[in-house]
Amino acid sequence: MAINLRGRNFLTLMDFTQKEIRYMLDLAHDLKSKKRLGIRNESLKGKNIVLLFEKSSTRTRCAFEVAALDEGAHVTFLDSNSSQMNKKESLEDTAKVLGRFYDGIEYRGYEQSVVENLAKHAGVPVWNGLTDVDHPTQILADMMTIEEHISKPLKDIKIAFVGDTRNNMAYAWMYGCAKMGMNFVGFGPKELHPDIDKEEGLLEACKKSGATIEFCSEASEIKNADVIYTDVWAGMGEEDKLKERVELLAPYTVTMDMLKEIGTEDCIFMHCLPAFHDFETGAAKKAKDEMGLDIREVTDGVFRSKHSVVFDEAENRMHTIKSVMVATL
Ligand code: CP
Ligand code: NVA
Fold it and tell me: Where is the Aspartate/ornithine carbamoyltransferase Asp/Orn-binding domain (predicted)?
């Protein structure tokens, strides 16, 4: 049966079948080739989309804006200070109003229930641009990047997610792996291993697709990972947890030695970005100078090495977000 995602929300990959995810990935590859060839589709001509950001962003915001403009849509950006949402107007009323003006709504913020509520009341597709527990557009970009760099089907890929194995990126990857039959190994301190039995539908999805999800704390327990993935140790809104996280996660800094021990010879290094790989950012410098903390989750050597595909990954945010909008609008 032909895949038709028109009118669908994009809140988590758990809401999609493997074939539907395959469809969005194929569309993204196609849209990327077309952009390279200078072919304009204008498949969103006449559409209006709104971007709601309660947390900051470079890639996600710009990806939505460029993707929409490439396809002929018009964009409005609202941050948490510039709308009435959650101040003088409830989420439900905001969703109902925006649904009258716009053809699609992107939301980035805290609880997943907010994006779910928007979707319940808006009457137009709502896209999740990151919450505390998920980041599904990032996973599409990551899968696309893996397909560009490793000539094996996704189901044969082993990904080692290093660090905080229960943050939004770790969960987003578990959902993605479960759907696409991939092999996920969460590599980090036991204290941060999640209880995945409590995750509704996750183990059933793994059973159906042949995916595996495991956790370990020792590098010697992982061999031949195709992808070494990491993320910041304290995400947006978790900055007060920095000290305790550094204490737990310092042994899990991604180094060249770690890559050699747990990865294949030509493994790729991935990171959703922004990354702490040196002390050139205000946050890394401040943590070092004021608290004596080294918050780098990856060394500069790995970040800049031939294994690193982080900027291809960043570019693919745009092509995959375009695919999600084109497919659902
Ligand atoms: N990876 C990602 O979501 O980046 P931004 O926070 O810059 O959007
Ligand atoms: N875990 C990070 C991801 C940023 C894209 C955060 O939530 O801040």
Answer: 155-327
Our mutation pick for probing the ligand 1 site, out of 52, 60, 168, counting the most ligand atoms within 8 A of Cβ, is 60
Does residue 236 have its Cβ closer than 6 Å to ligand 2?
A: yes
Distance 258 CA to ligand 1 centre (A): 25
**Amino acid identity for residue 202 in this structure:** L
- The pLDDT-based confidence of 221 (bands split at 50, 70, 90) is very high
* For range 149-170, the mean pLDDT: 98
The reply to whether 40-134 and 138-314 are identical in fold is yes
Q: Considering only 76-80, 102-106, 139-143, which range has the smallest mean pLDDT?
A: 76-80
Instruction: Tell me the per-residue pLDDT of 15-70, one tens digit each, with 9 for 90 and over.
Output: 999 999 999 999 999 999 999 999 988 999 999 999 999 999 999 999 999 999 99
Residues 6+ apart with CB under 8 A from 37: none
* Edge-to-edge strand ranges of the sheet holding 212-216: 212-216, 183-187, 158-162, 225-230, 263-271
In terms of pTM, does the model score above 0.90?
yes
Q: Is 108 in the active site?
A: yes
Share of the chain above pLDDT 90, in %: 95
Binding residues: 57-60, 84, 108, 135-138, 168, 231, 272-273, 317
Domain spanning 40-134: CATH 3.40.50.1370: yes
Residue 81: pLDDT band with limits 50, 70, 90: confident
CB 52 within 8 A of CB 95: no
Question: In the structure encoding, which two tokens stand for residue 32, read together?
Answer: 């990327």
Query: 195 an active-site residue?
Result: no
Q: How far apart are the first and last CA of the chain?
A: 20
Where are the domains positioned within the chain? 40-134, 138-314
